[in-house]
Specification:
Bound molecules: NADP nicotinamide-adenine-dinucleotide phosphate
InterPro entries: ADH-like_C, ADH-like_N, ER, GroES-like_sf, NAD(P)-bd_dom_sf
Protein name: Zinc-binding dehydrogenase
Number of domains: 2
Order of helices and strands: EEEHEEEEHHEHEHEEHEHEE
Strand content: 15-25%
Distance between the termini: 51 Å
Radius of gyration: 20 Å
CATH topology of the largest domain: Rossmann fold
Keywords: NADP, Oxidoreductase
CATH superfamily of the largest domain: NAD(P)-binding Rossmann-like Domain
Helix content: 10-25%
Pfam families: ADH_N (PF08240), ADH_zinc_N (PF00107)
CATH architecture of the largest domain: 3-Layer(aba) Sandwich
Number of strands: 14
CATH class of the largest domain: Alpha Beta
Structural class: alpha/beta
Number of helices: 7
Length: 283
């Protein structure tokens, strides 16, 4: 079958190649891919691809061979899937519990845009807690996760301030219910009960400084590729956890944000800054 495989060449990060057909394990269905989507994290992995790496975590298509253990969905079902990889291809093996049957009104292209960004948004808001009447600050709002968070939070009654670099990138967010659009975190007025930060760099300390007392900040990405520092302002420095006098900084591993742990519920109102999963009290 044909698949997109990494080249390691920044000018042409993937190319079409002939690869072996997937061999589904027990509990995995074989899906004919009709559409797939591309996540920012996946594009980062293309820069230094590991040998044999096959990208593709978000797909939509039809089941051509159901899971051998009999788990549905059955043959011919329209599905949206979230495999661990290999989805940028004609066929992919997907664990049956990572498949969902979408409503007929959702096209394959729309469905393929759902899994990683949609699940991340849902989990962010579950971790953040009820948003009704609360002030939410969202960076990277024009991205995939940002659009879903905006729509879900606004519909749940949040007053959401969306940060986008450009004006034109904000138009859809207003339609989805964002209360306010700004183009720099430093323009955010007042304090926020919930801060959802995914661009890194200076945005993280600036956003942290706007967190209300007993508020929740979740840092879940670094789209800017600039390391996020926390020891910026005097106020920030008081909030930064220290060990033996040294400030503990976030690791750049997105899984550490606790959003990728299928099935395990991340701790609420706590931020894991250095990967030990011990609750921090400084928030
Ligand atoms: N922890 C997890 O489990 C998890 C899961 C999914 C995604 N993520 C991470 O969350 C972030 C958002 O994911 P996504 O799928 O929504 O990505 P995306 O669609 O690429 O959106 C990222 C947004 O960040 C903004 N941005 C701000 N400064 C930027 C810069 N210097 N360079 C590039 N973009 C910049 C861009 O919006 P403007 O240009 O309009 O500002 C862009 O729309 C990514 O870092 C991703 O890796 C984490």
């Amino acid at each position: 079958m044909k698949a997109l495989v990494p080249t390691g060449d920044p000018a042409e990060p993937v190319k079409v190649a002939e690869v072996a057909d997937p061999r589904p394990r027990d509990g995995e269905a074989l899906v004919r891919v009709e559409a797939f989507s591309i996540n920012r994290g996946e594009t980062f992995l293309l820069e230094r691809p590991k040998p044999g790496h096959r990208p593709g975590k978000d797909v939509a298509g039809r089941v051509v061979r159901p899971a051998a253990d009999g788990t549905r969905p059955g043959v011919g079902a329209r599905v949206v899937g979230h495999p661990m990889g290999g989805g940028w291809a004609e066929f992919v093996a997907v664990p049956a519990d990572a498949l969902a049957v979408p409503p007929d009104t959702v096209s394959a292209v729309q469905g393929a845009a759902l899994p990683l960004a949609g699940l991340t948004s849902l989990r962010l808001l579950r971790v953040a807690g009820p948003v009704l009447g609360r002030r939410v600050l969202l960076t990277g709002a024009s991205g995939g996760v940002g659009h879903y968070v905006t729509e879900l939070a606004a519909n749940a009654g949040a007053h959401l301030t969306a940060v986008t670099r450009g004006r034109e990138r904000a138009e859809g967010l207003v339609r989805l219910g964002a209360s306010e659009i700004i183009h720099d975190v430093s323009d955010a007025g007042g304090t926020f009960d919930i801060v959802l930060e995914s661009t890194g760099g200076t945005a993280l300390p600036l956003a942290l400084a706007r967190l209300a007392r007993r508020g929740t900040l979740i840092w879940f990405g670094q789209a800017s590729r600039t390391p996020a520092g926390l020891a910026g302002t005097r106020r920030d420095r008081r909030r930064v956890p220290r060990r033996n006098g040294r400030a503990l900084r976030p690791r750049h591993n997105e899984d550490r944000a606790g959003l990728h742990d299928r099935g395990r519920r991340p701790r609420r109102r706590r931020m894991d800054l250095h990967g030990t999963h011990r609750p921090r009290r400084y928030l």
